[in-house]
Design a protein that fits this description.
7 helices, alpha+beta, globular, 8 strands
Length: 239
């Protein structure tokens, strides 16, 4: 019992439906320091939009001006969030659509790209470990991250948007594959840390938490499981 610790939860987040697991009170406080409506305010429900029917920017080809941010609906040691969808090959060698994938549709490309840079990094992972169940990833959880994307300082916004193409390229260059009745590919996000560490540092500036990057690292590495993980069955893919 002496190891139990309690932390104050903001009134707006204190609901019986969610009991946050606060690994770092400082990180938790930084995320909630700026009241924002959440990422979901910049998304919309789509009718007929298909993540597999988009252009190279992830814009829907169905006539809607919507931009896709895709994600795997389960996670382990990193957030499987992406614009470019990893391939999946069935037993006959044909490329097929990914299963267990969902999409957040954004009205603006810049909002989508900002959300990617936030949620795929360690800030997004911290949010998932605080309010998630250590397995599932949902649109509701991602959309509830309390940030006003329109309130991001212009200079920081420009830096984040400039890094997005580099992040997407790095994802595609870092693949894993799981062999299960074919080959299921995923982007290995830890392989992109050279870029996500940069975006995490910029978001730390946004949150006024420049001095908490060490805590963010601790929150991440104190949570990931380094051995006997489901990802241990995945093979790295060399280009």
């Amino acid at each position: 019992m002496s190891t139990i610790a309690y932390n104050l939860v903001p009134t707006r987040r204190d609901t019986p439906q969610a009991w946050p697991f606060i690994g770092s009170p400082q990180i938790y406080a930084a995320i909630h320091a700026h009241v924002g409506g959440g990422v979901s305010l910049f998304t919309t429900k789509s009718r007929g939009a298909d993540a597999y029917k988009t252009d190279n920017d992830g814009k829907s080809l169905g006539g809607q001006n919507l931009y896709a941010l895709n994600f795997k609906t389960t996670a382990y040691n990193y957030m499987p969030i992406f614009i470019d969808i990893p391939p999946k090959i069935d037993e006959s060698g044909q490329e097929v659509e990914q299963s267990e994938m969902s999409t957040l549709w954004f009205r603006e490309k810049s909002h989508r790209d900002l959300a990617l840079s936030l949620l795929v990094g360690k800030w997004g992972y911290a949010w998932w470990t605080i309010y998630g169940d250590d397995f599932h990833v949902t649109a509701g959880l991602l959309g509830s991250f309390p940030i006003d994307l329109d309130a991001v300082d212009e200079s920081k916004r420009d830096l984040l948007l400039k890094l997005t193409p580099k992040l997407r390229k790095s994802m595609v260059e870092n693949k894993t594959v799981k062999r299960n009745k074919g080959m299921i590919y995923n982007w290995y996000i830890p392989g992109t840390r050279k870029i996500t560490d940069q975006t995490d540092a910029i978001w730390a500036d946004v949150f006024g938490a420049q001095d908490l990057l060490g805590q963010l690292q601790f929150q991440y590495y104190g949570t990931v499981k380094s051995t006997l993980s489901p990802d241990a069955a995945d093979d790295p893919v060399a280009d």
